[in-house]
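Shipment paperwork, digital attachment
Item: protein structure file
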Amino acid sequence: MSRPRIAIRGAGLVTSVGLDTASTCAALRTRQNNFVELAFVDQEHEPLIGASVPWPGVGTGLDKLAQMAVSAIRQALASGHRATLASTPLLLCVAELERAGRLTDLDTGILSRLEQHFGHPVHGDSTLVTEGQTGVATALELAYKLLFDKGHAAVLIVAADTFVNRGTIIHNLDKRRLLASGVRAGFIPGEAAGALLVQRTNDERDVELQVFGAGMARELAVRDSDAPLRGDGLTQAIEHALKAAYAPADELDLCVCDANGEHYRFEELALAQTRVRTATPLWLPAESLGETGSVVGCIQYAWLLEAQKKHYLPGNNALCLAGNDSGARAAHIVAFEFSRQYRAVVEASSPMFKKIIKRGGNYGA
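Attachment content:
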């Protein structure tokens, strides 16, 4: 008997290229960016490039992150699924505890500002996830337990993060991790907020993005370690996800990855793809948004939802990857499921439907 599944029903985004999901995903699709010169210089006194969100009136720091998160939440809740924040557990994904330059009072500060803005406390089953890039992957597993073990109708995954602050920039500049003079394989500091509305699957819905398999693992050869990089952690995470989804690697149509421009992450990705024997188109949000930390998971799934609406997916079976500096690696396999009525109507009107939209492996089991 297959494990029951969860579906990602709605999404909201606030990024440097758009203050909502539609505009952000339009920029991602066309590889547009809004990179600007920051008020920082590198060792050669050249200005650093960043991807800050043009959010007027609230300055920087916690106030800005909270306002961005509020907007993302409103977008996700407006997707027509009758969920309210008061009755919905909130899983808040933020920067990992050990990140240099982490905002003071980040954990309590955003939550208190959200409660103040919405006029009520967050749900009692709400949880803080401090994992950085892998936070949304962990939150999806927590959401599964809340939906099936505790019987909640919906769960809201919210992420807010920034690398555009003095402490984080100085630390990563000293480590030669930022794109700067003499550093060709570095990342661009960004910031963003995102939200995902997650519910149990419903076979009567025309279209829904379902999670078919998840895999978590740990990479021992983290950046700056003496261990040889073989991509073991990411490989294991992908293999676990494939096994959970009953899917062969050659039926994957797309990989959406959090690789941010650093040589280490691309080498790791290449090693894992070679060992798993998968070759797909690669979507990289960081090309347009820079490094967005814990928000990258929200961006990945929001992009898939929007791509399906606009009919530009290269296929239906997507692999979403994420990894943080401490060595955590996450892989999820997601695909769109369609009702029989919807499939019959679209097949009749679009001869390309059967070629583009398909189920992989034993997803329907």
